[in-house]
Amino acid sequence: MYDIVIIGAGIIGTSIARELSRYEAKILVLEKDNDIANATTMANSAVVHAGYDPVPGTKKAKLNVKGNQMYPQICKELDVPFRKVGSITLALTDEDVKTLDELEEQAHANNVPVRRIGREEILAREPNVSKEVREGLFAPTAGIVGPWELAIAYMENAVQNGVELALNSKVENIEKKDTGFKITTSQGSCEAKVIINCSGTHADELNSMIGGGAYIIKPRAGQYFVLDKRVGNLVNSVIFPCPSREGKGVLVVPTVHGNTLLGPTSTQIRDREGDETTKEGLDFVRKQVDRIVGNIPFDQVIRSFAGVRASSDREDFIIEEAKDCPGFINIAGIDSPGLTAAPAIALEAEQMVKGILKNLLPNKSFNPNRKRVIRFEELSVEEKENLIRENPQYGNIICRCEKITEGEIVDAIHRPGGATTVKGIKKRVRPGMGRCQGGFCEPKVVEILARETGKRMDDILYNDPGSNILIGRTKE
Ligand SMILES: Cc1cc2nc3c(=O)[nH]c(=O)nc-3n(C[C@H](O)[C@H](O)[C@H](O)COP(=O)(O)OP(=O)(O)OC[C@H]3O[C@@H](n4cnc5c(N)ncnc54)[C@H](O)[C@@H]3O)c2cc1C
Q1: Which of 75, 171, 399, 456 is the most buried (most CB within 10 A)?
Q2: Is ligand 1 within 6 A of the CB of residue 249?
Q3: Which atom of ligand 1 is nearest to the CA of 172?
Q4: Along the chain (476 residues), what's the average pLDDT of each consecutive run of 10 residues?
Q5: Is 459 left (phi over 0), alpha (psi -120 to 50) or beta?
Q6: Is 49 a known active-site residue?
């Protein structure tokens, strides 16, 4: 029997798994997809919010601020890209100036450092922002991160510290037993003393398996454009419009890898995994960002994508043991700022588990540091030369856009919880994330994956089952 089974390997499930790997406990993470972070954690704005937006007194406010403070240390331990670039919320109208007053008050109530800045300072910091701007609210503690890279790193570190990961394992039924639970998955069954439900947009379905009916998930989609790195510093910090009842509005965000994100929309949808973009949605993004930043080179868009928020009917994060079902912990309704709050949510989950499993002992061999990742492009010429001498695979550039070597791809496959698909490689080391979107490197990545995993090339998937890239040989 497992002490703890965590359902879902998004940023929430993986951060909790890593936190709990500090204890001597038998822990399993069950994930229905074939990779870590393939759902909401893969498709969001990647902003580590400062924390002035959530309503004071809510879990969102408390955990946003605490999570934000934890980011620098966590990203250092896990070797994940993170930059504290700050954010500016822009006021373009009289109405917006009033909203800035309210946000400033909220910032003080949430203990978030902010500063009002005038038009001149805004335009000096951000020359591409609309000349209509009147004032701004600058939040120096806001940052940007690689969201799925962080989830993958959390999971890798958890596995290093003894946690088990089962991919392709969809939880189909949960039965309450005298002691603990029986969990039936698409791969078999297992038992657990404690279940932590971190299944994102599916959380209410899992909760209803144990008879809990305390909340419903109301999925809300957000669509984006990604601009090529060539565009350079269109903005230096995260640029927000004034928020409205629908959310934080359409942002312009620099990414940790040098691209620019434009989005998201916010529309209620039925499909919990609805990741399609629409002309209507993208036209809306275009119109909205044009209001706050000028000169956006839309001819440099290299991709559009959509993500789904697991918003709930409760409007705040749900972090609680299910009523009438002790041992079943819901971590649900984790919409924005869930990415930011994840490290702090993991601490809440840790406290709840310690309250249930009273005799947890520390894992004496816990190591908070993930095995270092080699990012070839970031090395000095001398380091590159030495590395290639040691391992010639680092001398073979596979992705020309992002300058990714064969050595990095092979490493991404063989790490704990490593990549098994083309998208898995793309998420970990970025071939296919650049201007050509995989046009040149994808066949090479398929070849390397097949070689390293002992599969046939036509069995290699882009992502989901059925997404095979090759269908057979034209010449034997
Ligand atoms: C458009 C958009 C913009 C956002 N921007 C930001 C932002 O800038 N900053 C911020 O802090 N937050 C942001 N968020 C919120 C943030 O992305 C989420 O809070 C966070 O990713 C949620 O992580 P999760 O682990 O709960 O969910 P997910 O990443 O969805 O993970 C849930 C996992 O559970 C798995 N699962 C589901 N059902 C089952 C089952 N039956 N069996 C096994 N596994 C199952 C899924 O496959 C999935 O991998 C944004 C969200 C969206 C959609």
Answers
A1: 399
A2: no
A3: 41
A4: 98 98 98 98 98 96 98 98 98 94 97 98 97 97 98 98 98 95 97 98 96 91 96 95 83 96 94 93 96 94 97 96 94 98 98 96 97 94 97 95 95 96 96 88 96 95 95 82
A5: alpha
A6: yes
Query: Helices 11-20 and 147-160 meet at what angle, rounded to 10?
Result: 30
**In which region does residue 123 sit, left (phi positive, over 0), alpha (psi from -120 to 50) or beta (all else)?**
alpha
Q: How far is the CA of 332 from the centre of ligand 1 (A)?
A: 10
- Compute the distance from residue 272 Cα to the ligand 1 centre, in Å: 11
Q: Which atom of ligand 1 is nearest to the CA of 337?
A: 11
Neighbours of 393 (CB within 10 A): 17
**Coil vs helix vs strand at 186:** coil
Rounded to the nearest angstrom, the distance between the alpha carbon of 159 and the centre of ligand 1 is 20
Is residue 407 within 8 A of residue 378, CB to CB? The reply is: no
Q: How far is the CA of 152 from the centre of ligand 1 (A)?
A: 13
Ligand 1 neighbour 248 (Cβ under 6 A) = no
Tokens for 378, please give them.
Answer: 């970031």
Instruction: Give yes or no for residue 349 CB within 6 A of ligand 1.
Output: no
- Reported pTM: 0.97
| Ligand 1 contact, 196 CB (< 6 A) | no
**Atom in ligand 1 nearest the alpha carbon of residue 223:** 1
- Sign of the CA dihedral 32, 37, 39, 40? positive
Q: How far is 12 from 197, CA to CA, in rounded Å? A: 10
pLDDT tens for 89-128 read 999 999 999 999 999 999 999 999 999 999 999 999 999 9
What domains lie within the chain, and their CATH numbers?
A: 1-82+143-216+312-372 (3.50.50.60), 87-140+218-309 (3.30.9.10), 376-459 (1.10.10.1100)
Q: How far is CA 90 from CA 79, 107, 225, 256, 286, in A?
A: 33, 15, 21, 22, 17
Tell the residue nearest (CA) to atom 15 of ligand 1. Answer: 336
Give strand pairing partners of 306: 223
Determine phi and psi for 179, rounding to 5 degrees: -120, 105
